[in-house]
Amino acid sequence: MNNHANSPQLPSEPRQLGFYVDGQVRDRGEREVLTRLSPAHDVAVSETVLCTKTDVDEAVAAARKSFESGAWSRWSGAERAAVLLKAAAGIRENLDELAYWETLETGKPISQSRGEIEGAAGHYDYAAGVARSLHGDSFNNLGDDMFGVVTRQPIGVIGLIIPWNFPFIILAERIPYMLAAGCVIVCKPSELTSTTTLRMAEILTAAGMPAGVFNVVTGMGPEVGQAITEHDDIDMLSFTGSVDVGRRALMASAGNFKKLGLELGGKNPQVVFADADLADAADGVVFGLCFNAGQCCVSGSRLVVEKSVAKEFAALVADKLKRVRMGDVFDPETQLGAIVSPQHFEKILGYIESGKQDGANVVCGGCAVETERGHFVLPTLLTDVERSMAVARDEIFGPVLAMQTFETFEEAIEIANDSIFGLAASIWTKDLDKAIHAMRRVEAGRTWVNTTIAGGPELPIGGFKQSGNGRETGVYGVEEYTEVKSVHIALGKRDHWVK
Ligand code: TXE
């Protein structure tokens, strides 16, 4: 595999990042920095400022001041929408640059970065519409002397913690919805992938967003992230990342009982019934595994297939896995990119080893790709997997597919739901009744029938069970960031209580 033939444009020196508070880029000053190596090239591409707790306090104070001023929080929906639409245009104008940095810092193929940036712009467009249509409710049935109104108002200051796997689209599934509701934000991107978040702050400011509405503090989770989760002047926390840190965030947020939105891990089943179009299903399963090198919260990492077609289906999947194009991440034809960090690469290989030791059979892949630079794992199919094995239970977050078989519909559902997670599930069948029954029974916030990882701004996303709380995107996504207030309005002369 030649993984850097088309990459002449690697930065000659790492990009020096700042952080972003009150509408302005702040310089590093005396702070430490973290040097980010491109996972596909092992070349230093950016230097991220390690902000401090004091920086977090300053960002929260700027956000609070902005919120209380009413500039943004009390603007009309139409005014907010105008900024969101300009931000969408700004994203599209900067698509090449944003996609380039997304690929440099995450290691994903450039075509997937471009798709991510284009998709992100669509979220800003969509949220602009919701900003204008958001409304409450009225009760005209409370009698002649009473009128009731239920109104929504922005929650306030939101702490937003973002992971490294989809830095720009995860941001876009949250920021415009928070902004549409009238909230203000203090955001911490992953220390591995901060560049595009900082660029987004600049794009929003250029689009007319007032100072202090969107602030970015960069740095490490245990310092900057923890300070956000604990902060008493933050009204809501939106965290996307691992289950362990999610649990810690939940405890830390108890200090002021801030509202919590959590999107955590997944171990998402691909349920394939014998009557499915097996060729289509195999292609979908391979896409669902290899997209973003399996580093998606919704990756279809468990294959649950009907026993009568299991052998045939495993062969179809293996054939496709072997033909997935790996290579230079800047080649538009490349489909499978690098693993985000050496530590994560080792973790994935460790899971493959544990699967082998537990008795799983490696049908294809099963090892790293030998390259001069970067960290790549061959897409891997494991069969003879038992439910108790770690490869069937843990979120591996890499291109490793664990196959189990079933004989009855009930068994298929039981295996699909045998997980602490409940983020996503795919069902492959041509039988409409079976598809709808399975869709109803499967415990997952996102369920696909005869497709996988389909999405867009209109439908909400989020998880059941330990995959999290709350929903993002869609109209629900804006409503999450509002407080509901009920108002009783008395009409006419009061009937006095003390006569
Ligand atoms: O996540 P972390 P990591 C899963 C996936 C992956 C594993 C570990 O299985 O292998 O998590 O990834 C910040 N207080 N997902 O280690 O540590 C951190 O700086 C507050 C699934 O990267 O949870 C980053 O900004 N914040 C997931 C963010 O939390 C803290 C996507 C996520 O980092 C913190 C990513 C703390 N104490 C990983 N410690 C998905 N649902 O898509 C760290 N952070």
Query: What is the domain tally?
Result: 2
CATH architecture of the largest domain, by name, is: 3-Layer(aba) Sandwich
Strand order of the largest sheet: 15-16-17-14-13-19-20
Give the proportion of residues in helices.
25-40%
Question: How is this structure best summarized?
Answer:
The chain has helices at 53-69, 77-93, 95-106, 110-133, 167-172, 175-181, 195-206, 221-230, 243-252, 278-290, 310-323, 342-357, 390-393, 409-416, 432-441, 474-479; strands at 15-16, 19-21, 24-26, 33-37, 44-49, 137-139, 146-154, 157-161, 184-188, 214-216, 236-240, 259-263, 269-272, 302-306, 361-364, 380-383, 400-406, 421-422, 424-428, 446-449, 464-465, 468-469, 482-490. With 499 residues, it is an alpha/beta fold.
Topology of helices and strands:
Layout: E1 15-16, E2 19-21, E3 24-26, E4 33-37, E5 44-49, H1 53-69, H2 77-93, H3 95-106, H4 110-133, E6 137-139, E7 146-154, E8 157-161, H5 167-172, H6 175-181, E9 184-188, H7 195-206, E10 214-216, H8 221-230, E11 236-240, H9 243-252, E12 259-263, E13 269-272, H10 278-290, E14 302-306, H11 310-323, H12 342-357, E15 361-364, E16 380-383, H13 390-393, E17 400-406, H14 409-416, E18 421-422, E19 424-428, H15 432-441, E20 446-449, E21 464-465, E22 468-469, H16 474-479, E23 482-490
Parallel strand pairs: 1-5, 8-9, 8-11, 9-10, 11-12, 13-14, 13-19, 14-17, 16-17, 19-20
Antiparallel strand pairs: 2-3, 4-5, 6-7, 7-23, 12-22, 15-16, 18-21
Helix pairs in contact: 2-4, 2-6, 2-7, 3-4, 4-6, 10-11
Residues 161-165, 188, 190-191, 221-222, 225-226, 229, 240-242, 245, 248-249, 263-265, 297, 395, 397 line the site of ligand TXE.
